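Renewal narrative, Specific Aim 1. Our central claim is that a sequence can be written position by position from structural information alone. The example that follows is taken directly from our test logs and has not been curated for this report. It begins with the structure tokens describing the chain, in the order in which they were read.
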């Protein structure tokens, strides 16, 4: 009995041992299988995750391509800028982080929180920018406290540097952060949220040439996200080099001559159409946009009544006033009018019971074409324009590029307006009246033109009828010196007038500046023969003396004062440069706009005998 009991106990123990051994063996086999699975089957995936946990890929922004003037003088470059960013996945307590960062950066906690929320539109691996373009001192403060600032990065990125500040800003343009709509459009596949792109003018149109190619840094970090070492780096590639047709020294002279007045000035090479000068006032500093403009800064620009963001050279539409008279004269000559055609100006012109005044109340007396241009006699042009008719006048003006875009190669050009009988029927469903032809004959009424159109018109008169497309880019090169783009002179059309007709009008334009009683005598330059035409265009209905509204000091309110215009080319014997100047509410084209053109021409002639700065291109 006792043996049976011992045997049974021994069997139970053996069975339990076998069960336990089997369980242990199974667990051991499972561990071995798991180890094999992790080390063999899942090795690549786990290794990749391990690398991701201890490494970060940081994007390196590419410097945008530099912009030079026609002589190789640097106008736009890039400068290093310090940026404070944070990796979202490494911040457990954002509020505590912002409390530490706020005094270091000098930024309110609420603003940091706002930027944190805006950063959530980026992928999780993208650093969220909290402060851009900070000083070196601020950057060093942040680095000193890096141990207690988990996830905070100090980055160096290139920022656009506009060396001439507001000069030619409307030609060059500015940058801005890419929008969600742009990202979704399909036209910006190589960009991502937070990137800056060209928004206007040259920066926008030539974005593909300027943007460069981004680089990358692979860095190793510790568990707190602090940088330990750099593992790999692919350097970024800067954008291509753009050379403008602009002349920096001539541009500076134009800026200085224009001063604080509002308006526009543009100078063209009469043989190529290259833009040598472009002034639009008031201007703005593109640097404000380079790293992100604030809401307050934007409102100051956007709500300014003088429209500093508008390129008035191509988008400002003004009545051309008496600068239009040369087109009327040429159209009349082509239609059979004689150079000696005389009109007796007594100070007014009456038609259909309406009285149209000449600017000279006492009149100019007997007036032929040359005198009409020299002294800007309105009555001569009233009579000749009425005989010509609005449709012939409109057709002649459109040949010179008025009433339609002239082909300026950057966005924003407006067409101006050159009316006709058909235009008025379509626009207002009303007939054209003879009095409207009278007013149009002196560049008023419905007639509108941009300063660029007036400059093209003047270049056309100077170069025997070649209407040239304006050019702003002389060439684009890569960093190896390979030529990528070099625009050629483009003749839009050839206008045909007889040599006698051209000479008659040019003689009148020379007389405007160089003969007694010429309205443009303020633009006269000794030893340089300048041809030009003054213009004073009304911005409101011409009032009688009794109706004239005056300020308390006895002057016409600024908003009611006429615009001052002056167009010119020089040297008259062999023209090289054509200029159009519009000073908003400047009142007198001869006294106000003429001296600006004079200074540009003088500086142009001075630069011809000087060695260009920055080399020749």
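The sequence written for that structure reads:
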């Amino acid at each position: 009995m006792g043996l049976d009991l011992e045997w049974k106990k021994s069997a139970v123990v053996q069975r339990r041992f076998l069960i336990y051994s089997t369980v242990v063996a199974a667990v051991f086999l499972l561990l071995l299988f798991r180890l094999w699975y992790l080390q063999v089957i899942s090795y690549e995936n786990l290794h990749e995750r391990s690398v991701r946990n201890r490494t970060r890929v940081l994007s390196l922004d590419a410097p945008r391509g530099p912009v030079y003037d026609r002589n190789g003088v640097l106008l736009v470059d890039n400068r290093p800028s310090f940026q404070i960013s944070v990796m979202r996945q490494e911040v457990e307590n954002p509020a505590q982080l912002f409390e530490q960062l706020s005094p270091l950066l000098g930024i309110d906690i609420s603003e940091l929180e706002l930027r944190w929320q805006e950063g959530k539109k980026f992928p999780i691996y993208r650093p969220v920018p909290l402060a851009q373009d900070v000083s070196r001192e601020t950057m060093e403060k942040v680095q000193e406290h890096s141990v207690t600032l988990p996830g905070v990065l100090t980055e160096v990125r290139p920022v656009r540097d506009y060396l001439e500040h507001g000069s030619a800003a409307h030609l060059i343009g500015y940058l801005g952060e890419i929008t969600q709509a742009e990202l979704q459009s399909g036209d910006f596949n190589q960009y991502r949220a937070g990137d800056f792109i060209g928004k206007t003018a040259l920066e926008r149109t030539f974005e593909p040439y300027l943007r460069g190619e981004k680089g990358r840094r692979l860095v190793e970090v510790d568990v707190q996200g602090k940088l330990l070492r750099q593992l790999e780096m692919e350097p970024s590639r800067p954008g291509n080099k753009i050379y403008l047709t602009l002349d920096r020294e001539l541009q500076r002279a134009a800026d200085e001559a224009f001063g604080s007045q509002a308006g526009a000035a543009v100078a063209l090479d009469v043989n190529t159409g290259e833009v040598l000068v472009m002034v639009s006032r008031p201007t703005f500093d593109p640097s404000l946009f380079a790293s992100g403009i604030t809401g307050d800064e934007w409102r100051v620009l956007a709500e300014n009544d003088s429209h500093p963001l508008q390129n008035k050279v191509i988008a400002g539409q003004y009545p051309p006033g008496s600068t239009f008279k040369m087109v009327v004269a040429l159209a009349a000559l082509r239609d059979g009018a004689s150079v000696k055609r005389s009109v007796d100006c007594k100070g007014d012109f009456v038609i259909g019971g309406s009285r149209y005044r000449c600017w000279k109340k006492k009149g100019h007396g007997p007036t032929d074409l040359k005198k009409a241009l020299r002294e800007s006699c309105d009555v001569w042009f009233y009579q000749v324009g009425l005989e010509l008719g609005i449709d012939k006048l409109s057709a002649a003006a459109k040949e010179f590029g008025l009433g339609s875009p002239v082909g300026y190669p950057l966005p924003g050009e407006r067409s101006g307006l050159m009316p006709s009988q058909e235009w008025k029927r379509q626009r207002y469903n009303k007939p054209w009246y003879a009095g409207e032809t009278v007013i149009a004959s002196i560049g008023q009424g419905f007639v509108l033109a941009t300063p660029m159109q007036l400059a093209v018109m003047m270049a056309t008169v100077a170069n025997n009828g070649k209407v040239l497309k304006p050019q702003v880019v002389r060439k684009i090169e890569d960093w190896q010196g390979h030529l990528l783009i070099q625009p050629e002179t483009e003749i839009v059309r050839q206008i045909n007038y007889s040599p006698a007709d051209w000479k008659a009008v040019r003689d009148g334009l020379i007389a405007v500046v160089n003969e007694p009683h010429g309205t443009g005598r303020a633009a006269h330059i000794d030893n340089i023969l300048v041809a030009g035409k003054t213009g004073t265009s009304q911005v409101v209905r011409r009032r009688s003396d009794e109706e004239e509204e005056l300020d308390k000091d006895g002057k016409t309110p600024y908003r009611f004062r006429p615009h001052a215009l002056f167009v010119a080319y020089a040297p008259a014997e062999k023209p090289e440069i054509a200029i159009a100047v519009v000073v908003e509410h400047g009142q007198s084209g001869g006294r106000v706009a003429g001296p600006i053109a004079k200074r540009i021409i003088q500086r142009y002639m001075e630069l011809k005998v000087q060695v260009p700065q920055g080399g020749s291109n």
